Target: enoyl-CoA hydratase
Amino acid sequence: MAYQNLLVEKKGAVGVITLNRPDALNALNKALMDEMTLALDDYEADDDIHCIVITGSAKAFAAGADIKEMQPKSYMDVYKEDFITANWERATRCRKPVIAAVAGYALGGGCELAMMCDFIIAADTAKFGQPEIKLGVMPGAGGSQRLTRFVGKSKAMEMCLTGRMMDAAEAERSGLVSRVVPAGELMDEVLKVAQTVADMSLPIAMMTKESVNRAYETTLSEGVRFERRLFHSMFATEDQTEGMAAFVEKRQPQFRHR
Ligand code: HXC
Model:
C-alpha cells in the first residue's frame, strides 16, 4: 500500500512506521491518522512482524493534531464525528509491542500518540508538551489522563495549565520516557531494542504487555491475580518448554512463537 503521509519499512521482524509530513512538522491530520490505522492493521496481521516502532523526523515526532484542519470545526462537527477517538486510539489497541522513538517536538496529539505506545525512547533533542491550552482547548487524545499517570499530578497539571515543554532529561527523570540516547543514535538504538523484543516469544510478549497495562486499569490485587493466571497459562506454551529447556541445557532458546 502506498501511503502519502507515512513511510513504512520492515526491518526483519520489526515494522517501522515513520510519520512523514515534513512541511507541517508531522502534524497529525485525518489522512495521516487513517493511514496509521491501516499500517498498524497491516503489521498486526503480519505474522512475520513481532514488534512495531513509530517514529518521526529529527525535528519533530509530531507537533500535534493539525491545527489548520481543526480550526474551522464547530462543536457539532467534533461531537458528531467523535473527533479523535475513532482512529487515534488504534495504537492503544495493538496487541504486539509498540515502541515510540521520539526526536524533536512531541506536542499535543504528538505527545499523546507517543504515550499510547508501550514505551518511549527519546533522543536528547526531544521536547514533550501539552500546549493545547494556548489554543483555547485542552488535551483531547488522552493527554490529561496518560501524562498524569506517567509523571504524576503536579508536573502534569503544570504542563497542561501552562503549556510549557519538558526536555528529554526532565522527561527521563519524571518517568515519561524509558531512556534518552544521543539524537544520532536514536534509530539504531531503538531498532536494537525492538529486535530484542522481537526475538522473544511473541505470545509471551503480548501477554506480558497485557499484564503491565492492567496495572493502569485495575486494583493491585486484581492485577496480581490477572498476572498469576497469565503466568500459569504460559506453561501451556511450547515457548515456555523451550525457554526453560534451553536454560537448563546452556544454549540459546529457539522460540517458535506458540
Ligand atoms: C498544523 C503545524 C502544526 C500543527 C506546526 N505546523 N505545527 N500545522 N498543525 N500542530 C506547521 C506550521 O504552521 C508551519 O507551516 C510548519 O509546520 C513549520 O512550523 P513553524 O511554526 O514555522 O516551526 P518552528 O518555528 O520551528 O516552531 C515549531 C513549533 C510550532 C514550536 C512546534 O510549530 C508550534 O508551536 N506548533 C504548534 C504546536 C501545538 O500547539 N500543538 C498542539 C496542537 S493541538 P507553514 O505553512 O507556516 O510553513 C492538539 C490537540 C490534540 O494537538 C487533541 C486531540 C488530538
Q: What stands out?
A: The mean pLDDT is 96.
